[in-house]
Amino acid sequence: MMGAMVIGAIGATAGAIAAGGAAAWGWPIEVKRRQKRELLRRVRGTLCLTYDDGPSPDVDGATTGALLDLLRERGARATFFLKGCAIPGAEAVVDRIAGEEHEIGSHSRDHRHAWRVSPGASRRDLERGAQDAARWAGERQLVRPPYGKWSVSGMRWMERAGHTPAWWTIDGGDTHEPRPDPARAAEALAAAGGGVVLLHDFDQGDAHRRFILEATTAALDVAERLGLAVRTMGEVLGVAAAPHQGAETAA
Q: Is 139 helix (H, G, I), strand (E, B) or coil?
């Protein structure tokens, strides 16, 4: 399976780099670079919408709920990378994400930057986030490291656990200051002929929510115009999604 090949490349690349005496930080950077090159190849002709740091609360006007409404209207599926600390109190929102056949991955528990904390602290943050998301994402998950950074410790944990790293190719810019035009990601998508778009479904007020909805709409419009397939991250990487285990069936 192609997803297994992506993970398997970690061990092969690691051995080659370690043999060459690369620095500890050079190893994860090079592995990520190689995986992103493969991702760029795989995502041609495809739009993959991904949303980090949610879920936002189950209240009127919340970003995740408004986004799910839009995706349902457009008949599009996306991949949501959950932050573990955001899940308590929002389990019904995650049930809705899964129940509407979107894909769920993990994004750590507390969003620790792997290069600004100890390797052990970063690995534990990833591990706990995967535990938090396991009810919906299964035992083997798509994992997106916070800030797109990981350590040797985090890489090895992911490989041992059978998780698949999930990067992006187009940054939607919603966390930038100032924010760009919401259509910028769609323009990059059209120029590249496909891509994995990074956006965030946490709540930062009305302006952020409008940006997310406009950016998503623009990307879907480009996909429709250019005939791009709208696929989940797991479909792009060849990793099977976990079955939904919502409130009714979770242990």
A: coil
